[in-house]
Amino acid sequence: MESSTILPLSHVSIFYHKPHGTNIGAFPCNFKRFKRSSSTITVSNCQKMHVSGFGEASPESKAAKNLHNFFTYVAVRVVTAQLESYNLEAYKELMEFLDRHSLNDGDKFCAALMRESSRHKTLAMRILEVRSAYCKKDFEWDNLQRLAKKMADESNTRLMRDYVLETSHVENENSDG
């Protein structure tokens, strides 16, 4: 029989672990060396935040797996749109296959599609081709990073503002009317 231990939140640290022999508290960086220019400070020897609970994979690896599956979804959408305009029979076959199979795991979906029939194998090969091309040439990686940062900042600000309004018993100025 397996057992697990649940620690109260006071025992769980979300801060960086302080290396032995340092006096930097919860800060993640070793501030021994830094370079000062006219208006900025560049810190060197910075360590990344440790994120536990992901097993053998990093958060970036988990995100990459989700993006990989998303690229399959995008490729299927592209291929179905193409088929709808020039090959209605293949479009219907792919749509019927989609009704019977989940797109949650892109590789599993494509493997099943390849094994369905020789016609389906051709569709699967086209999806793999589009998935690769989209990932390498069309997906806007810089835009993803910008949007993810913007969403995190806006969401954090909104959540904190809503919490302060809720707990401070201050009425919203827009509700006076």
TrEMBL record:
Protein name, UniProt field: Chaperonin-like RbcX protein
Biological process annotations from GO: carbon fixation; photosynthesis; ribulose bisphosphate carboxylase complex assembly
SUPFAM superfamilies: RbcX-like (SSF158615)
Pfam families, per the entry: RbcX (PF02341)
Domain of life: Eukaryota
Keywords: Carbon dioxide fixation, Chaperone, Photosynthesis
InterPro entries: Chaperonin_RbcX_sf, Chaperonin_RcbX
Gene3D superfamilies xref list: Chaperonin-like RbcX
Molecular function as annotated in GO: protein folding chaperone
Natural source organism: Mikania micrantha (bitter vine)
Record keyword Transport present: no
